[in-house]
Amino acid sequence: MRRFRRAIVAVLALALVAGAIYAIVAVLQRSETLVTERCVAVVGSESFELATDQAANASLITAIAVQRGLPPRAASIALATAMQESRLRNINYGDQAGPDSRGLFQQRPSQGWGTEAQVMDPVYAANAFYDGLIKVPGYETMEITQAAQTVQRSAFPRAYAQHEGMGRAFASALTGHSESSLDCTLRMPEAAGDPSDVTTGIATAFGPLPATVQGRSVQLDVTGTQAWAVAHWAVANAKALSITQVDVGGQTWNREKRNGWEASAAPAETVTITVSAPAT
Predict the structure, then answer these.
(1) Model pTM?
(2) What span, in angstroms and rounded, lies between the C-alpha atoms of 166 and 208?
(3) Residue 25 lies in a domain
C-alpha cells in the first residue's frame, strides 16, 4: 500500500512539474506575442514613433543623405515628405491627384521622375528627391513645407509641416548626430540572420564601408557620427535582418533585453552588428 501511495505521489509530482513547465513556456510564448513592435526616436524632450517597416525606409532615405554628404536638414525634409506622400511605405499606387504616382515619394513618371520601375526602387526614389532638393537655393534654412513643395509640387503643400518633428528626430538619430537616440522594441527573431545580408544592406545604404565578418557578427571600422548612423541603421533594420545586438562607442543595444541603449565596453572606433544564430 505504501509503495502504491509513493507511486501516486511521484506521478502527481511529475504532473505538477510538467504543468509548471507548460505554463512557463505558454507565458513566454504569450509574452512574445504581446510585444508591440515599434521604433522610437527621441530628440530633447520629444519622442516620435514609427512602425518597423517605416523606420527601415526612414533609415535608407537618411543613409543615402549621409552617403551623399548632405546635411541632416536634407534628411529631415525628405522624411517629412515621404511620410506625407506614402506614410513611409513603398506603395505601388497613386491617388486622384496623381493616378500614376508611385513609391516612397509618390513620384510621377508622367512628370519626368523616371519609369514606374525606377520610382518604385527606394534607392532611386530617394536619390531623385535629393537631386531635386539640392537644386533649391537655400533649402537648408527654408521651412520644410516650402522646401518640400518646391521639389514635389504637391496639391497640399502645407501638409508636410505636420511631420516636421518626426522628420527632425529620426534624421538626427539616423545621421548619427544624436547618439543612442533610436530604439526599436521587437520580438525575438524567428529565423537565423545572415551577416552577408547586413553587409549588403549597409553597402546599399551608405556605400562601401570597411567591414569584416566574424562568425555571426559584422564589424565596421567607422567612428564619430558615421558610427552612430550605421548603428542606428542596424537597429532600424533589426527586424528584417534578424539582428540581435549592436555595439558602438561604449553602448550596446540588445534585442532580447528591450532596455534600449545601455553602457558597455564597446570600443568607439568600431561598430559590431550581431545576427541571430540558427536554431539548435
Answers:
(1) 0.87
(2) 28
(3) no
Q: Point out the residues of the chain with pLDDT beneath 50.
A: 4, 7, 9-13, 15, 17, 20, 22-30
The span from the CA of 228 to the CA of 234, in Å, is 10
Tell me which residue of 280, 182, 189 sits closest to 243, measured CA to CA. Answer: 189
- Hey, what's the cell of 166? 518626426
Residue 262 near residue 252 (C-beta atoms within 8 A): yes
Q: Are residues 158 and 201 in the same domain?
A: no
Q: Are residues 169 and 204 in the same domain?
A: no
> Could you tell me if 167 and 80 are in contact, meaning their C-beta atoms sit under 8 angstroms apart?
yes
Give the integer Cα–Cα distance in Å for 59 and 242.
16
206: which 3 cell numbers? Answer: 551608405
The pLDDT, as a whole number, for residue 14 is 55
Strand partners of residue 24: none
Are residues 140 and 207 both part of a single domain? no
The verdict on residue 268 lying in a domain is yes
Question: In terms of domains, do 44 and 129 share one?
Answer: yes
The three-state DSSP-derived secondary structure of 218-259 is EEECCCHHHHHHHHHHHHHCHHHHCEEEEEECCEEEECCCCC
Tell me, yes or no, whether 100 and 201 share the same domain. no
Cα 181 to Cα 265: distance, rounded to the nearest angstrom:
18
The pair phi, psi for residue 275, each rounded to 5°, is: -105, 165
At residue 9, the pLDDT reads 44
pLDDT value at residue 31: 66
Q: Which domain holds residue 268?
A: 191-275
Domain shared by 228 and 139, yes or no:
no
Contact 217, 273 (CB under 8 A): yes
* Bridge partners for 48 per DSSP: 41
Indicate the SS3 state at residue 17: helix
Q: What is the pLDDT of residues 98-132, one digit of tens each?
A: 899 999 999 999 999 999 999 999 999 999 999 99
Q: What pLDDT score was predicted for residue 95?
A: 85
